[in-house]
Write a structure and sequence with these properties.
By secondary structure, the chain is α+β, with helices and mostly antiparallel strands. It folds into two domains: 2-90; 112-340, Bira Bifunctional Protein, Domain 2 (BirA Bifunctional Protein, domain 2, 2-Layer Sandwich), CATH 3.30.930. It is built from 13 helices and nine strands. A seven-stranded mixed beta sheet has the order 1-4-5-9-8-7-6, with helices on both faces. β6 and β7 (257-266) form a beta hairpin. It starts with a helix and ends in a 6-residue tail after the last helix. It binds phenylalanine.
Length: 346
């Protein structure tokens, strides 16, 4: 009996200094496991008197239960402690944003080209246009051939192309590639716009960049005419600039339209007086456009006898420059936060 009574005291003492779940499990095994003192006592009972069997047996069971209860309580305690320790070490510091801002880093915002692109997409969506995407890496067919620019055509030189080493693939020089893909996937009537980056191997200056942005537009149906084209272009410009802008239409040559036009706007940087952006002429080429050439309609699987269409290729960067009075296109790609942070943030 003495052994039994001191057992609980011994257990309690060791329990006090147990702080890890693994140690607690060992302690439990040590006292009430198969090799432990209680198991020994039970084994020896077979030689005891019936009276001893009863008292010792009952007491041994009581002790076993008491130890199990104590282990259970301690286990709960340790589990909570370990969970709290794990939480503390992996905790997310939600005050980080503030402290980052205090150190002078700025929250992100939209690039002005993105802002204007989204604005124009919304204007066209409200006029029933879809918004399409197309790949930056194109083949000769989509960038030239299907657009009525055969290999021998001098117009290929109009666009200085970044070719891949295989001489078959290129970085698209205009978003007109989206016309071909868009037509093939639809039946007239349809109307869509296709914004995106375009690439030209050009010397850069205040109004030229190697990477810039266009927004292609196309509408095909029965009797689509120059009248429709002018209506949509005028609506677009008055929505964007929220004021009257002076425009002029000149004949323009693009192999994929006939007739083709250049829609210019009076330079908003210098009010037509002449500056580096308008190359001193007072007008800025903004919107080349025209009626889709029959060959292009055919390449898109459309019968030019039944349907006609217009297309335009809006220069997004120029538009951004006009809208925000930015006098050098190179600001748009410089990644200078002093420049970028002047526009709307999220
Ligand atoms: N793709 C032509 C360019 O980048 C622009 C354009 C588009 C002209 C659609 C007419 C019609 O130069």
């Amino acid at each position: 009996m003495l052994v039994l009574e001191s057992l609980l005291a011994d257990f309690n003492q060791e329990l006090q200094s147990t702080h890890r779940i693994a140690d607690l499990l060992n302690l439990k095994a040590k006292f009430i496991g198969k090799q432990g003192p209680l198991a020994d006592v039970m084994k020896n009972l077979k030689d005891a008197t019936p009276e001893e069997k009863r008292t010792i047996g009952v007491r041994a069971n009581e002790l076993k239960q008491a130890i199990e209860t104590l282990v259970g309580q301690k286990m709960q305690e340790l589990e909570i402690q370990e969970m709290n320790a794990a939480l503390a070490s992996t905790k997310i510091d939600i005050s980080l944003t503030d402290s980052v801002l205090e150190k002078g880093l700025q929250a992100a915002g939209y690039h002005p080209v993105t802002i204007v692109q989204q604005e124009i997409e919304d204007i066209f969506i409200s006029m029933g246009f879809e918004v399409l995407d197309g790949p930056h890496i194109e083949d000769e067919y989509h960038n030239f051939e299907a657009l009525n620019i055969p290999a021998t055509h001098p117009a290929r030189d109009m666009q200085d192309t970044f070719w891949f080493a295989d001489k078959k693939h290129l970085l698209r020089t205009h978003t007109s590639t989206i016309q071909i893909r868009g037509m093939k996937e639809r039946k007239p009537p349809f109307r869509f716009v296709g914004p995106g980056k375009v690439f030209r191997c050009e010397r850069t200056d205040a109004s030229h960049e190697m990477v810039f942005h266009q927004l292609e537009g196309m509408m095909v149906g029965e009797n689509v005419s120059v009248g429709n084209l002018i209506y949509f272009m005028k609506t677009l410009l008055s929505e964007i600039f929220k004021r009257d802008v002076e425009v002029r239409l000149r004949p323009g040559f693009f192999p994929f339209v006939e007739p083709g036009f250049e829609l210019d706007i009076k330079c908003l940087i210098c009010a037509g007086k002449g500056c580096s952006v308008c190359k001193q002429v007072g007008w800025v080429e903004l919107l080349p456009c025209g009626l889709v050439h029959p060959n292009v309609l055919r390449a898109g699987g459309i019968d030019p006898e039944k349907h006609s269409g217009f297309a335009f290729g809006l220069g997004l960067d120029r538009l951004v420059m006009m809208k925000y009075a930015i006098d050098d296109i190179r600001f748009l790609h410089a990644g200078d936060l002093r420049f970028n942070s002047q526009f709307k943030s999220f």
